[in-house]
C-alpha cells in the first residue's frame, strides 16, 4: 500500500530505454523479485509490500508504461505482449536474466504474458487477480473502464475521479451501484483514498491502454502455453476471485491459493518465492547498474534523476544541459520543477538547467525531514548539485527563486562556494509575522474529505492561480497542489521564515527582482536592498523570460 513518507530503504531511479523514460523503485538484497502494480496506479502503491520482501529479495517495482513517471509505449494500441517485452528490456538493462514476478490485477496479466513469452527468464509468476472474461464482460469493461470525463470549467472531472476510486471499493464493477454489485468492504478514511485518486489524476490518456490490453487478452487460449511455474492467488473478498474457476483447463504447472485478506496473500507469495528462489543469483538494490543509462532524452525533453539519501528521494529535472553555466530553478509551494519546463527549455539552448522538486512536491513526495529551514534544505540541494553537475566548485551557477522559494534561493546563493548570481521572480518573503500569517491564510486546505470536496477546493484555487490559462494548465497546477497537500503548509511556513533581507544585505553582487503584472509586489518583502526603483517586469512568454534572465546575468 501507499506510504505518506516512503522509507529511505526504497530507492528510486529513472533510466532511458530508447526515447522512453522508465521509472522504478527498488529495495533490499537477494534473488530478484519484480512487482507489477494494478491500473490506474504506480509503483508507489507497493511501498509496504516492497519493505516486507526487501529482507529476502532485491525487489524491483517499475511504473507500468503510461503510468506513474514511466513514458507510454510508442504504440497506438499496445498489447500485453508489448508490456511484457518492455519489462524484459528493463531487466536486460539491469543485468537480470531470471527473476520472480508478482503482479496484481492488470499487473498480474502482464506477469502472465511475461511468463508465457519468456519462460527461461521467469522462475515463478504469482498472479493476484487473474482476469478471465466472458465476451459480454469484455465488451462492457472495454467501454466503461477506459472512460474518463473531459476537463471542465466547473471541475466536475475532479469529483468524478474521487467517486471512481471510492466506488471501486463499494461495488464491482465500480459503476454498478445495484445491491448485487455491492462488495461489503470497509471504506478506508479519505486520506488513504487520496493517493489512488492522485494516481488516477496523474495518469496520462495513454494509461487507458493498459486496461484495454488486459481486457483484450485471451486468457483462456494462452494460459495453457505458459511453461513457467504459476501461482494463481486471490483474497476472499476480491470481486474477481472466482475468475480462475472459469478456466476450461486449469494449468498443470499452476497452484491455487485464496487467502483471508491481502496480507495473507502476500505472506503466501513470499513463502513461495523463498522456495522458488533457490539457485537464483543475488543482487543488491543500491548496486544495480543504472548509472550508464541515467540520461533520458525522452519525448518530453526533460531528464529526471533522483538523489537518494537517508531522508528519501529528491527528484530533479534536467533540460538538455549545454554550456558551462547552470541555471537552478526553485519553484514555490504547490508547484514542481517540471512546471518550470517552458522556461527551462528556453534557457537550455544557452546553459544547463536543473529544476528540483522540493521535498513533498512533484516527484519528490513527502520526506523524512523534520523541517525545511535553510540549514536543512540548502545542504540537500547542494548535495544534488554535486552529484548532477560533475563539476568543480568554480562552476558558474545562476539561482532563480520563484514565489515562496525566494528565501531558499538567497540562502543557497550565499552558500555556493564560488558565489552565485541570484534572481527572484514574484518573491513572496514578508518579514512581518502578521504579513506571513496573511500569506499562509491564502493557501487552500486540501485535507481529503469523504465526498472529495477538497478536490473542488484545489480546482478553485488553481483557477485563481492560473487566471486566463487553459484548462490543461489549470489541471496541472491543481495536481501540483494536491501532490503537495501533506507538506505544503510546513514547507511554506518554513520558507517564509527565511531572513531574506539579511541574506541579500550580505551579497556583493546585485540581485535581480522581477514581478509579473498580475503579481502585486510588496516592496517591504525585499526592502530597499535590491533596487530603489520599480522591480523589473516579468513577461508572460517563456522566451522573453529566458531573455530577461540571460541579460540580467550578462550585466552582472
Commentary on this structure:
The chain has 556 residues and is of the alpha/beta class. The chain is 35% helix and 17% strand. The chain has 18 helices and 17 strands. Strands 1, 2, 3, 4, 5, 6, 7, 8 and 9 form a nine-stranded mixed β-sheet that branches. The protein has an eight-stranded mixed β-sheet with strand order 10-11-13-12-14-15-16-17, sandwiched between helices. α3 (106-117) links the parallel β5 and β6 (122-128). α11 crosses α12 (406-415). The model has no long low-confidence stretch (mean pLDDT 90).
Strand and helix map with partners:
Elements (H helix, E strand, L loop, with lengths): L10 E7 L2 E11 L1 E5 L10 H7 L4 E5 L17 H15 L4 E6 L1 H12 L4 E7 L6 H10 L11 H12 L22 H13 L5 H8 L3 H4 L7 E6 L18 E6 L2 H15 L6 E2 L18 E7 L2 E7 L7 E5 L10 H7 L4 E5 L17 H16 L7 E6 L3 H10 L5 E5 L7 H8 L12 H13 L5 H13 L4 H9 L3 H6 L5 E5 L20 E2 L4 H14 L1
Helix pairs in contact: 2-3, 5-6, 5-14, 10-18, 11-12, 14-15
Structure in a nutshell:
The protein is of the alpha/beta class. It has helices spanning 47-53, 80-94, 106-117, 135-144, 156-167, 190-202, 208-215, 219-222, 262-276, 341-347, 374-389, 406-415, 433-440, 453-465, 471-483, 488-496, 500-505, 542-555; strands spanning 11-17, 20-30, 32-36, 58-62, 99-104, 122-128, 230-235, 254-259, 283-284, 303-309, 312-318, 326-330, 352-356, 397-402, 421-425, 511-515, 536-537.
